[in-house]
Amino acid sequence: MSQMYERHLSEVGITAAQFTLIAAIGRRPGVQMVELAEHMVMDRTTLVRALKPLQRDGIVEATQESAASRAVGLRLTAAGKETLAKASVQWRAAQAEFEAKYGEKRAKALRESLFELTTME
């Protein structure tokens, strides 16, 4: 299943994990690292490592929220917003392929099961 998503997203030059990150940042511009790590169920070190190539490629930028605060907010750059738009098209294409292959009911059940696994403590 993940290979299907990876294949579609490779057209845009990102991975499924990177898509998930930029989609989360796109929904919450200025989100702080700690909040994003909690949302993504990642530790901060793993998140920093995952963000490095996105920052290097000019997709995500980290900005200090204020001079008085050490909090760093994450935002998509213009290139990041464009990447997210293109990747969203590919993501939907992967979902359509997945549903065509497994059927709508089975695909929904699989997605729900995967979601449950990621939210288990």
Number of strands: 3
Number of domains: 1
CATH topology call: Arc Repressor Mutant, subunit A
* Spatial arrangement of strands, main beta sheet: 1-3-2
CA radius of gyration is 16 Å
Describe the sheet with the most strands.
3 strands, antiparallel
Q: What percent strand?
A: 5-15%
CATH architecture: Orthogonal Bundle
Organism: Caballeronia insecticola
Domain HTH marR-type: 1-119
Protein name: Transcriptional regulator MarR family
InterPro entries: HTH_MarR-typ, MarR/SlyA-like, WH-like_DNA-bd_sf, WH_DNA-bd_sf
Folded structure, characterized:
- The chain has a single domain, classed as Winged helix-like DNA-binding domain superfamily/Winged helix DNA-binding domain (Arc Repressor Mutant, subunit A, Orthogonal Bundle), CATH 1.10.10.
- 68% of the residues lie in helices and 10% in strands.
- The chain contains six helices and three strands; from the N terminus they run ααβααββαα.
- It has helices at 2-9, 16-27, 33-40, 44-56, 78-102, 104-119, and strands spanning 31-32, 60-64, 72-76.
- The protein has a three-stranded antiparallel β-sheet.
- α1 (2-9) runs antiparallel to α5, α2 packs across α5 and α5 packs across α6.
- It starts with a helix and ends with a helix.
